[in-house]
Amino acid sequence: MNAEFWHERWKNGRTGFHQSEANRYLVQYWDRLSVGVGEKVFVPLCGKSVDMLWLRGQGYEVIGTEWSPIAVRDFFEENGLEAEQSKQGEFERWEGEGVTLLCGDEFKLTASDLDGVGAVYDRAALIALPPEMRGVYVDHLHEIVPLGTKSLLVTIDYPQHQHSGPPFSVPDGEVRALFKTGFEIEDIVSEDVLTDNGRFAGRVDYLNETAYLITKM
């Protein structure tokens, strides 16, 4: 799986992972991170998520990364936001009205790109990656975010053999193994959400959603 996979998904409109409302765990538990108003929040593999609008509405400056230029364009157009385009290193930078989206390869992001970031919100990055890429993603995250950065991570867990993904199943044991070095991890909530997710109904035996508070040490 690579950037081309996601380019094709967006090109063909296969974006069932996109949510029309802000994620409930973001709304309910974001204050657990104690992020000061005005700080920068990093949203990896952000797509055109309305979660970024929610964060902006709380007074934060949002920085997102996304492989697909279609997703980046749609985010600004569908929300009626003006954006200036420029180059930033390896990325096409779209910036406007409190949101900056960097379009390009997530793994080419550097610490300087995230200078001043105070928190990370990951609802769609870790679960978008196959097993062989998750460790690389977490190691890269540790390299580029400032010491002490807190993250709200949302994952799903289901019988992987019953659904090919993405989004992929990332069970609790794998989350703890991925973040065991260089991070502190704290449980927030875990719930059975199968009845609330029609695209999984009748296809998997269970679907659990879990939110974690993760701190870079």
Word description of this protein:
The protein is α/β, with parallel strands linked by helices and 217 residues long. It has a single domain, classed as Vaccinia Virus protein VP39 (Rossmann fold, 3-Layer(aba) Sandwich). It is built from 6 helices and 9 strands. The protein has a 9-stranded mixed β-sheet. α5 (131-144) links the parallel β6 and β7. The two termini are 30 Å apart. The mean pLDDT is 92.
Biggest sheet layout = 9 strands, mixed
Q: Count the domains.
A: 1
- Structural category: alpha/beta
CATH class category label: Alpha Beta
Q: Which regions are unreliable across 5 or more consecutive residues at pLDDT < 50? A: none
Distance from N terminus to C terminus (CA atoms, Å) equals 30 Å
Order of helices and strands: HHEHEHEEEEHEHEE
What shape does the CA trace take?
globular
What do we call the CATH topology? Answer: Rossmann fold
Helix % is 10-25%
So, the CATH homologous superfamily? Vaccinia Virus protein VP39
Question: Number of DSSP strands?
Answer: 9
Beta-strand fraction estimate: 25-35%
CATH architecture: 3-Layer(aba) Sandwich
Rg measurement, Å = 16 Å
Work out the helix count. 6
Strand order of the largest sheet: 3-4-5-2-1-6-7-9-8
Q: What do the pLDDT scores average to?
A: 92
Topology (elements, then pairings):
Blueprint: H1 3-11, H2 24-29, E1 40-43, H3 51-57, E2 61-66, H4 69-78, E3 84-88, E4 91-96, E5 99-103, E6 117-122, H5 131-144, E7 150-157, H6 172-178, E8 183-192, E9 208-216
Parallel strand pairs: 1-2, 1-6, 2-5, 6-7
Antiparallel strand pairs: 3-4, 4-5, 7-9, 8-9
